[in-house]
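Entry for the shared binder. Reason: the reviewer on the internal report wants the predicted structure included alongside the sequence.
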Amino acid sequence: MEIFNPKKVLVTGAAGFIGFHLSRRLLEEGCEVVGLDIINDYYDPAIKEARLEILRPYENFKFSKLDLADREGMKELFAREEFDCVVNLAAQAGVRYSLINPNAYVDSNLAGFVNILEGCRHNEVKHLLFASSSSVYGSNTKMPFSIHDNVDHPVSLYAASKKANELMAHTYSHLYNLSCTGLRFFTVYGPWGRPDMALFLFTKAILENRPIDVFNYGKMQRDFTYIDDIIEGVVRVMKRPATPNPDWSGDNPDPGTSYAPYRVYNIGNNQPVELMHFIQVIEDCLGKKAEKNLLPLQPGDVPATYADIDDLIRDTGFKPETTLEEGIPKFISWYREYFKV
């Protein structure tokens, strides 16, 4: 694969957890970055504003407060800025929230994504990367999860919307020769993380002497992936636009590649960890025991995730290596500093 060094990148969800870290990395590398975000109140907007305050001083950064679902606004942005690469990280996140507010997922993850595809199609974008999710594996039980496995049994609307993004992107690859790469992220954690995620919720509760909710009676397994590893994976994939797979066959269709310039990658730690061990590492870091409220598996949740990353390693030469014992202390020291505890 030839290396592509984009000069101007649109990062959607730039005030979000992954979008912020990616924007900062690209800015440090000298890329021109346009960050887009609606700054909704799905979680405390103050943390989104604080992330943006770190990005704003960069001379090569511009911010656009815009809703992906705003068709005209998106059209104007693409025409005006002429991006050569787009990384779509904006989405209505969260599995459990999709049970309460399904329409938010339709607006952002479906209607919004069409606007991105159309923007790329009409403005000669050379590579579109988009966040998919480990949740697309749904009811699959064969471990580790491989991009070459069928993923047609999602268990939440969030997962279904991410699978839909993959199908929509493939269609545009086929019709318009648009190079598209889907990135299935596995449980991302680290400094500036999302307040609705387990690490943030557990840390906050333990420090405030409140019990933590432990689902599936602690028997959950997650392929926890440190934010810096996610960003390294994204940057490496970004520089290698998707190309057609010459061996692809319609008689035995490979879900992870295509005859069109379309690809999917897992970005995960390739090491599932029991939730109880995850909690223990947090307790050790905080020097405090958690009071655990053991609960059954929640609707929409899967018991385990485990990423097969052979394709990522083969194509980019990168393998995430950060252990929980290395990553969690970094989050906790950030948390203490940010909240002054």
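Summary line for the report: The mean pLDDT is 96.
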